[in-house]
Amino acid sequence: MYLSLVTSLFTYICIILAVAFFTLFERKGLSYIQIRKGPNKVGFMGLPQPLADAAKLLTKEVAKPTMANYSPYFVAPVFSFTLALLLWQLYPSMYSTSYFKWGVLFFLCVSSLNVYGTLLAGWASNSKYALLGSLRAIAQTISYEISMALILLFPLFLASSFNFVEIIEDQKGLWFIFLMAPASFLWFVTCIAETNRAPFDFAEGESELVSGFNIEYGSAGFALIFLAEYANILVMSLFSSILFLGGSEMFFFSSDLSMMLKVTFFAFVFIWVRASYPRFRYDLLMGLTWKAFLPTALSLLLLILVFMFTQL
Predict the structure, then answer these.
(1) pLDDT at position 152, please?
(2) Does residue 291 lie in a domain region?
(3) Residues of the chain with pLDDT > 90: what percent?
(4) Considering the entire predicted model, what is its pTM?
(5) What's the domain range around 190?
(6) For the chain, which has fewer Cβ within 10 Å, the N-terminal or C-terminal residue?
(7) Angle at the Cα of 192 (from 178 to 33), degrees rounded to 5?
(8) Secondary structure letter of residue 18 according to DSSP
(9) Contact between residue 132 and residue 199 where contact means Cβ atoms under 8 Å apart
(10) Count of domains in the chain?
(11) 273-309 pLDDT, tens per residue?
């Protein structure tokens, strides 16, 4: 029990550090894509910049809006951050002390709770901008969760397991992306929408909602929301690499380094997409999942089921 607690605590510390330096990676990536320099003044090549940002945020005065509902207002960031950390319990390492037999179901259950953190933050702030931003984010997240669950069935059918470790082992020699490239593309676009990232960042539409659901947050509350968002990006990159790129499997040998490289690749694609595309119109975003992704996923699932039954 104590070993599990220590390893979980160590994992969470590593995640927070990874998120901190992922923000630097994003700012550097965006700057070079836009042909300019990113953060380069703090320390050597700007490497301590995330630590300086964290110190600035955590030492600021805690904002207490007069009209806010204080209890849910302060609980919402903590709730979102806790859910983001919980998903990292599913990290399929050979050194793990916990073993999730039904890991995919745990992922679906925890990820579906993310909307409540956004809802609490938007409603408890008692601001029109925050409420509108949270409502748009909730509608977007719930809509794309349906497509995500259906697309998730593709690797589950091939692996015949809900366990991420067994899904990785089933991809020895051939990754699932080569068997179902269209489904992997649908999955990644859905991940971008689920994490409210550009070009689907309607929860934080600065041009019309002045930062959206987190407009009333500052200091530690904003830092926790920020950490939760980026931890979710990294965990969705992790699950993408597990489900479609074989996780730690790399040409008939297994290594945590290969998984780290794949996660870094997917995380960079998140940044690349943000730098390349303007924000979608909201009606086009909702139409994309209900009129394109959902029918496509159902049709491909029907084809797979027909193929499986013909092989029996």
Answers:
(1) 92
(2) yes
(3) 42
(4) 0.92
(5) 61-311
(6) C
(7) 90
(8) H
(9) no
(10) 1
(11) 999 998 888 889 899 999 999 999 999 888 888 887 7
